[in-house]
User: Fold this.
Amino acid sequence: MPRFSIIVPSQGVAGRLSLALDSVLAQSFGDFELIPVCDAPDAPAADVAAGYAERDSRVTPVHSPPSAGPSGARNTGMRAATGAYLLFLDGDDVLVPGALAALADRLDATGDVDVLYFEHERTPWWEGEPTNPAAPLLAKAPAGAFAPERAPEVTGVQLPAWSAAYRSTFVTDRGLTFPDGHFTDLGFGGLVTIAAERMAVLRGVVVRHLVRRQGSRLNQPGAHHFELLDQTDLVLTRAAEQGLSGARSERLFEQLFATVLKTAAHPRRLPSRRRAFFRRAGKLYRRHRPAGFRRPGGRLGVQHRLLAAGAYTAFRALRGANQCAARAAQIVPRPRMLRTSLLYRRQLRRPLEPDLAVYCAYWGRGYACNPAAIHAKARELAPHIRSVFLVEADQAHAMPKGIDHAVIGSRRYWEVLARAKYLVNNANFAEGVVKREGSVHVQTQHGTPLKKMGVDQSTYPVVAAATGSFAKLLGRVDRWDYNLSSNRHSTQMWERAFPGSYESLEYGYPRNDVYCTATADDVARVRRELGVPEGSTAVLYAPTHRDHHTGFEAGLDLEAFCEEAGEDVVVLLRAHYFYDRGLRNTTGRIIDVTSHRSSEDVCLAADALVTDYSSIMFDYANLDRPIVVYADDWEVYQETRGVYFDLMEAPPGPVARTPEELAGVFRDGSYAGPESRALRAAFRERFCQFDDGRAAERVVRRVLLGEPPEAIPPVLPLAERVPAPAATLVRS
Assistant:
């Protein structure tokens, strides 16, 4: 029997689950079993957990359906547990180093106790200092093991479930489970407190809890706050049945109703039915108030008296000023940038236009990427939606004919931004743009993350300095309602890099639809437009940006490569869009396509891709054409930029470290040989999961037409897709 069973529910935190599991497996004390609880065998978290189970026999994943909620997940984990003590860890929290050793030592010192409470650290995102809210409460407890009567103020209702270790036989013998619904920690903690006969405390931090930037879902508005009263009633009814002593009963009652009053006095949590909540709370208060209970002093004591009397009008008046201020703030949203025009402020007071959509790509660089693909499909499937594309003034001339657009910074720009119901972007809208109630923001992204993104960049100084304020970045993430993903890896990494309350849409990238829909005629047309000579092998060379470089460096002598690779080879050079100056510099067998509007066209024209660490490899893999990785500075890139996985261990094709090796794989044909095809097949299976040619349609139907998820076209299996033909195949 292991000493500890550590149960980790993972719903909604697949992107950070690995951090929680790593923190457990890295413990110096190894006598434990680790039980990740996943939604289903095919859920994102299940993939993560399965990988850990393959590497470590102590990891035993189990499954609990999302409908069962956090309580169902924890109860499922408890049923599977075989350890002497149960520990709970949320999937986005971590155990501090040495935590299990400290718990084991403390239990050795106290002997078997029913429950061992310990401290935890609440770590906020970016702003604010970590806090230890349990420390003041636990500091009052006796030094060794003690009966609950000796410290009646120590109740589980003030501590989350993951701030204690529970003896398994105690939990089983007393039939303790997490109650259904919301506020399940409060219910479970109260039941444990009532049943426990011997407890102890550890005055040290065991869990580091990541405070979600949007706050706990229990603090969000909604009718679920009535379930707080259900849990309160459950605990106090059980306390009465057990005949809890006077001091313990009073402390339990006081702490439970402190939570109830906090909710009753919080207008945002109960936007409606506040009177009904107050009346029911008052009835519970009068029914369960212990004999001789002395109300607390001060403002809280006044609230106790008003609740006991059922005086809702007086209670509401006590909070009236704060309610008025909150309503005023909601009625007139204010942009956060001082430079935002007064026009925008005025437009924000007008109603949203329900059939207006605004699109933007690459900070206004033109009609491109996922926003353009969604825009085009919306014109076909949702013609009633009026669409406006946002573009910088120096790119307005390049907008396709018939595409309504507004120049960024213009009067119309601020008007449509303020009034649009739908806002679609592959980067982020300006800092001052307000997320209005009822508006829908769609973040499409513009690549699959190999390199570290978002808040994961914070530990890389060069990148962090260029990113600027992470607090502001996360403020922009707060506006997202939907976030697109083209593969399960991206879904998990976006959750880590951009933590927020958005919904992930695993629909594929709309810009990649063309890789399944383009014809041989389309490929031939694009090659003619780019100037690719008839009969040549076009190699697309697309290096990524280096954060430690101040300008574009090709990193390769392309003329020499052409000479060495073969007489029919031409290179399509596409530098990172940071270096697009709108000019074409074509010389000899090098065709500069950096300024070409569509990266999708360039990929269609190419017979093979050479890249270093650019995310274009993930998109190009949809074409099932040869890919070669030129990794002359992989170790430097890893150190300065950070990556999510080792590309050298799972490349999409041959890896060349020197110019000679790169030319050699083309000269001998191995770039397109059997080994290359095998590597590419594994890469496509992992990273081309959802790109089947219908991504744009899915987005339009779900977001703009409001169709339910079950009505959205399913993703076509990879084996059934037919990529656009390469020019070499057409010639054959």
Summary: The first helix runs from residue 14 to 25. The longest strand covers residues 199-211.
